[in-house]
Amino acid sequence: MLRSKLKEALICLKNLRVTLPYPAQPAPPAEGFRGRLEVDINKCIGCGACANACPPRLISVIDLDTRRTIEFVLGKCTYCARCAEVCPEEAINMSKEFELATEDKKDLNITVELIMVKCDRCGTAFTTQRIVNKLMAKVPDEIEIEPAALDWLKFCPNCRKLREAQKISEAGT
Amino acid sequence: MLSEHEVAKRLRDAFPEAVVSTKIPVPGIIYITINTSFISSACRYLFEQGARFVTSVATDRIAQSNRVEVSHIFSFDEDRLTVVAKGQASTSNLSIDSISPVIPGANWAERECHDMVGIDFIGHPDPRRLALADDWPEGIYPLRRDFPYNYKPPVAPENAVPLKTPQPPASVLPIGPFYPVLEEPAYFRVFVEGEEITGCDYRGFYNHRGIEKLADSVLTYQQVPFIAERICGICGFIHSSCYCQAIEQASGIEIPPRAGYIRTILLELERTQSHLLWLGIAGHIIGFETVLMQAWRIREPLMWLCELITGNRKTYGMNLIGGVRRDITSEQYPKILEVIGKIEDQVKELINAIVDDTTLHLRLRNVGVLPPQIAREFCSVGPTARGSGIAIDSRVNHPYAAYSQVPPMVISKPEGDAWARTLVRLEETLESVGLIRQALEQMPAGDIMVEVKEIPPWREGISYVEAPRGEAMHYVLTGPDNRPYRWRVRAPSYANLQAIPIMLKGNSIADAPIIIGSIDPCFSCTERLEVFDVKTNKIKVYTRQELREISVKR
Predict the structure, then answer these.
(1) For residue B330, how many other CB atoms are within 10 A of its CB?
(2) Which of A99, A114, B63, B67 has a Cα-to-Cα distance from B331 of 20 to 30 A?
(3) What CATH number does residue B437 fall under?
């Protein structure tokens, strides 16, 4: 009995206080820590891949008139970084920031607004200007794009289908 | 060793008309469709042959074939064999014979099947409501496919579960519904005669959140691992691993060997920190705060190590179907070895100090004894079973991840008391450190993730993971909409809690907290309260509404 108590006392005395003086002194997280997410609004093209992957479904993509709004409701974030993983533009980054207490959790929200392109045929806004720009930039300079193909880019998916169908039926008659 | 075909043959010999069909999608698992009138005798036969009951899954297949499927899952541990006995009930008569009279451990599983899918178990000894809230209306079954995930049914407070009352002269000592020692909601109605405990009734599931429903109606395959990880705040990684393994098995995905090793390392890191956490809490329960302080001091660097490897101290977010998301880099190896080496030394030092401590012996020896026979009947798992001499461990019985290359030593003690369970955990902590070291050494180079293409629908998968608290089991049935059609989770405490009334019986009130604590239970929130009137001996249970009215009046 006494021997055990002495051994236990020794362990306590050897280690003394281990509590860190946080928050008086900062306690930086480990390398690779996933903290508050940051969105580079200049890089975001509005594809919505992050919204599809997000497990707590906190990212919404809303199209209104000619604006696409991507909203991140960070109060729901579980810091899994799936959005950062799937983003094709590397626009999302998990920072090391973890001190996120706030009086209004809306303070944490991030909103990205992007201009949309209207369909040349029916007038519906169907994708963002940045996605179209990206597609254009992907075509190598030496390839000359036919005007018909350029038109194609300016049509919404539904009108593309309609036009194809029309072509086929015209060819048939 | 018993083979898949041998089990089917034996069942056919014993009951020539019982077996309708068999299916062996992967080695080690056989699904046997049983003629429904034989389900109880077939399950009794399996149990008598030495199979351990794991859990039951009820699946609504009304849309496809107008029936509800009940799968009783059994494990022949030594033979590394899982047997699924499937019964079916058509919608015209949604009932099936209960197996609980023969297998006491099936009690909760069958009650949950009734609560969630609405199938009656004929002859069930205690068909009270288990998992649904007290004010949930009768006849509405949340895991039916036609029940929308966001539907809120009208409250029906009259459905409160009738709680058991003891035979006089015993009286009730309520522990809970907020269980102060673990700061978690669980309600043990302990029946006492003087100081001695004579029985117990349990009401839990206060925090049932319906995540299985979310998974089969809202989330996608690759989103579920993250909610699975949140089933438990201490051993969440085992649940995401278990879910991913079940899907991988169902869809025939082979994960890269390195991913299996990384899962193994993280699972063992989790076991180490969880056992140290438990040791601290056990010390705290019996008022021995030195153990709490020192165990948790030793544990903390492990949490920092996990943050370094995974990006978070808990809920690692590492698992996806097909592998893991982050590699363990070679720069991290020395750091890992350094931390676990330190943990090993310090745990040894602590064990050396406390194993001969008579304070602990007085509080833990011969307390909460679980005889091996009872442990088997109630299908106990993990350190609770191993503390009663039942040497089962899913890492050995159903090897997964890299455990066939890094096999653990199964530690068991015959005494069956709280002290035996303590020693099992302490020795396992050291064993885990050895496993991590071995896995790090053997880990092959290579990919950590395979690309997952389409997951075919209507395939079943059953996977086990040995959590710190015992075996966790996940069952999945893949669906056509990029999400599971059915996902069933059986956490280890589900099995272990059912044996608590037996463990409490005959002990004194003062030992109740540590007996409950000794299975390392994991429960979750409540909104009800019971008042025992000493003058009239009447029990009044307040509903949430009544409580709100009282508080508003004040």
Answers:
(1) 8
(2) A99
(3) 1.10.645.10
End-to-end Cα distance, chain A = 102
Smallest Cα distance from B153 to chain A, Å: 24
Partner A, chain B 440-479, Cβ-Cβ below 8 Å = none
Task: List the single residue in B with minimal CA-CA distance to A85.
Answer: B325
DSSP string, B306-319: HHHHHSSSSS---E
Asked whether residue B520 is domain-assigned, the answer is: no
pLDDT given at position B64: 93
Mean pLDDT in runs of 10 for chain B (554 residues)? 92 94 95 95 95 96 94 96 95 94 94 94 93 92 94 90 87 83 82 92 86 93 94 91 97 96 97 96 92 95 96 94 95 96 96 92 94 94 96 96 95 95 96 97 96 94 96 96 94 90 91 89 44 45 60 56
Question: Would you call A25 an interface residue with chain B, using a CB distance cutoff of 8 Å?
Answer: no
Candidate from B218, B294, B357 with C-beta closest to A12: B294
Q: Using the beta-carbon criterion (under 8 Å), do B226 and A56 form an inter-chain contact?
A: yes
Confidence at residue B532, expressed as pLDDT on a 0 to 100 scale = 38
Return the closest-CA partner of residue B245 out of B267, B217, B216.
B267
Which domain covers residue A52, as residue numbers? 29-137+146-165
Give the closest-approach CA distance of B333 to chain A in angstroms: 15
Asked if residue B487 is part of any domain, the answer here is no
Phi, psi of A41 (to 5 degrees): -70, -15
Residue of A nearest to B311 (CA): A33
* Domain CATH for B136: 3.30.460.80
Instruction: Identify the domain containing residue B63 by its residue range.
Output: 4-146
pTM over cut 0.90: yes
- Side chain identity, residue A136: M
On whether residue A17 sits in a domain, the answer given is no
Q: What is the pLDDT of residue B545?
A: 63
Residue A12 lies in a domain: no
Query: B294, A81: Cβ pair inside 8 Å?
Result: no
Q: Identify all chain B residues contacting A29, using CB atoms and an 8 Å cutoff.
A: 307
Alpha-carbon gap: A137 to the closest alpha carbon of chain B (Å): 28
* CB pair distance less than 8 Å for B308 and A31: yes
Measure the N-to-C terminal CA separation of chain B; round to a whole number of Å.
Answer: 68
What is the domain-level CATH number for residue A97? Answer: 3.30.70.20
Is B104 contained in some domain? Answer: yes
Q: What is the pLDDT of residue B525?
A: 24
Give the angle subtended at the CA of B217 by the CAs of B213 and B218, to the nearest 5°. 105
Instruction: Map B16-85 to HEC letters.
Output: CCCEEEEECCCCCEEEEEECHHHHHHHHHHHHHCCCEEEEEEEEEEHHHHCEEEEEEEEEECCCCEEEEE
Over residues B237-255, the pLDDT tens digits come to 999 999 999 999 999 999 9
Contact state of A11 with B358 under an 8 Å Cβ cutoff: no
Are B312 and A34 within 8 A, CB to CB?
yes
Pairs of residues, one from chain A and one from chain B, whose beta carbons lie less than 8 Å apart: 73
Token pair 């949604």: residue: B94
Taking Cα atoms as reference points, which of A72, A80, A79 lies closest to residue A107? A72
Number of compact structural domains in chain A? 1
Give contacts of A 36-75 with B, CB under 8 A.
Answer: 52-57
